[in-house]
Amino acid sequence: MTGLLFGILVYVLAQVAIGVWVARRVKSEDDYFVAGRRLSPLVAAISVTATWFGAETCMSGAGEVYGNGITRFTVEPFAYGACILVAGLFLAAPLWRRGITTTADLLRERYGVGVERLAAVLLVPTSVLWAAAQIRAFGHVLEASSDLDFETCLAIGAGITILYTSMGGLLADVVTDVVQGAALLLGLGVVLVGVVMALGGPSEAWSAAYAERAHVVPDARTWLDVLEKWSIPVLGSVLAQEMLSRCLAARSAGAARFAALGGGSAYLLIGMIPVFLGLVGPSLMPGLEDHEQIVSALAREHLSPFFYVLFAGALISAILSTVDSALLVASAFLTRNVILSIAGERATPRTRLLLARATVVGAGFVAWYLALRADDIYELVEEASGFGSAGMLVAVLFGLFTRIGGKWAAYGALISGLVVWMAAKRELVELPAPYLSSLAAALLGYLIGALFVSRDPRTVQ
Prior knowledge:
By secondary structure, the protein is an all-alpha fold. The protein is built from 20 helices and no strands. The model is unreliable at about 455-460 (pLDDT under 50).
């Protein structure tokens, strides 16, 4: 075992130990999934930033900038940051006032249990795919810090994340988010300083970024392609339970709104560091074969072993905070909105908590399998953002802000949006903008379904 790998594993085990310690305070399903709904605005905002700042920001986003510069298609951190701000402006407070745990709970209240279960089944793959992206990134970090092969590193990363998540739930996650947020800022800051010094100072680093890669690269694709590219992270992720769970765990509607607005602003600010590293990367490390490794490669090249461990700990912090959120969301949908929705009130609080932990473990193993089969991180993230999200967005917005439509309208939105998205992604039909097409299909499906039901939501219960 190398010294770097040992240092990284010590850091990870410290995070696991914190999770185990906090797990003693987890007494109920509410503690496990929404931290008892008692988060302060600042803690909730830190948690939003930490959970949203994952592998796609540090690795995939920087890799895209390394290869292409900043273009109209650069969505990290800009589009994903905008997504959090949109959620804070329009959704966080109204959803908090409903007293729900998942967005599927809202669909049950508004459209009935059938819609709730269908939505949960459709949303579980989204969270599992998101977790798979983070586990794959964890494997990359371990591989870069050891002599182990990627498959072994992936298995180790999956095992650690499953153990870490299953123990303490969201309550432990929020506690460690504060530690992980500090580690993330420190680690990326250390890499930034090291790279700037290697380039000769701030002015030389800025010149390298601007002159080499900061221009807009000509692209033959249309503005419809740009809109499609941005709509997937902004509209496809605005209802992501991984982010909204922090808002729902806040102690007031105002705290929920601040969690998203403050967390989104911090995400955009910190997310500019990987963008900068991607811009200057070609000046320091030209010809890198795997673009997603640019931040790790710069850290290895320009940091001492001690500071590299700090950086690796920061990257793992970002990954752990995101992956455990994704696994908890998959567990929440399966436990609350499928299994317990069928079982009713017969399950005891202890049984509900054990079931929640068991589904985390199951979702973790599926995520590991998907991470093993995927080609890259961005592929998993894009699939996670688009899968089933169009119909969910339409059903939630109509259900939250209007009394138009009932259960058949919701069914129409969920099914039509998913069918069009899957048909386009699998190239069964040729559509220029698969996600926008699925969103249009979901809206049309909802409106057609609304023609056949009463406007009174009580008729669908």
